[in-house]
Amino acid sequence: MVAMVTRHDEHTTFAPTSTKRMPETARELFDALPELPGFRADVIEGTLIVSPVGTPEHADCAMELYRALLPVMDDQGWKGRAGNVDVCIDGPREPVEPDFVLAPYDCPRWGERELLSSGLIMVAEVVSYSSAGRDRTEKPLLYATGRIPIYLLIDPIAKSPSVTVHSDIDDGVYRAVNQVALGAPIQLPKPIDIELDTSIFKSGA
Predict the structure, then answer these.
(1) CB count, 10 Å around CB of 37?
(2) What is the pLDDT of residues 109-140, one digit of tens each?
């Protein structure tokens, strides 16, 4: 993993190369980043984290989820996106790039580039070795803070591969956590309200 770190309470000294104001926070540094093919960028608790994109198997999991939800998306008029979509966490305004995003067509945005988290229906992360700690520990709190109703965690690399649904936000925390072994069915709560066959994610194991 490649990481660049800037915290809100720290200042980084840059060699003066122009009269332009240099970024002073992780949010400002994220906004100033050029396109980084092959990498993804998140800001979590004031830290900018740049990490490589996942393997083809990692991407397969996100696409299998997209295909599984396609009937619901068509029925409800929702839009699913597998990667390459930035989400602004409502509140701290920190940007993240989930592996999968489910949103209504009219989901509000923060600026032109980012979907606003409080307008989403669900996000999903596929755990990789470079993101395991963040996906399992930090992202549940971050997504609950951003009022995303459902967080789906697909973990094919765990000692016991699993799929976990986080839902029912109360006081900035997901109160309902339902985990099954990878391959078992799991219920995605309302408004999705379907039973998901998690055997579709075994290609990422």
Answers:
(1) 6
(2) 988 889 999 999 999 999 988 888 889 999 99
Instruction: Please identify which residue in the block is written with the tokens 């122009």.
Output: 18
Shortest CA distance to 87 belongs to which of 157, 161, 30? 30
85-113 residues labelled b (16+ CB within 10 A) or e (exposed): bbbbbbebebbbbbbbbbbeeebeebeee
Please spell the DSSP secondary structure of the chain, one letter per residue: -------TT--------SSSPPP-SHHHHHHH----TTEEEEEETTEEEEEE---HHHHHHHHHHHHHHHHHHHHHTEEEE-SS-EEEETTTTEEE--SEEEEETT--EETTTEEEGGG-SEEEEE--TTTHHIIIIIHHHHHHHTT-SEEEEEETTSSS-EEEEEEEEETTEEEEEEEEEBTBEEEEPTTT-EEEEGGGGGGG-
> pLDDT tens, 57-79?
878 999 999 999 999 999 999 99
188 vs 196: CA distance, rounded Å: 7
6 pLDDT exceeds 50?
no
**Token pair of 146 as six digits:** 């951003």
Q: Please tell me the distance from the alpha carbon of residue 166 to that of residue 148, in angstroms, as a whole number.
A: 10
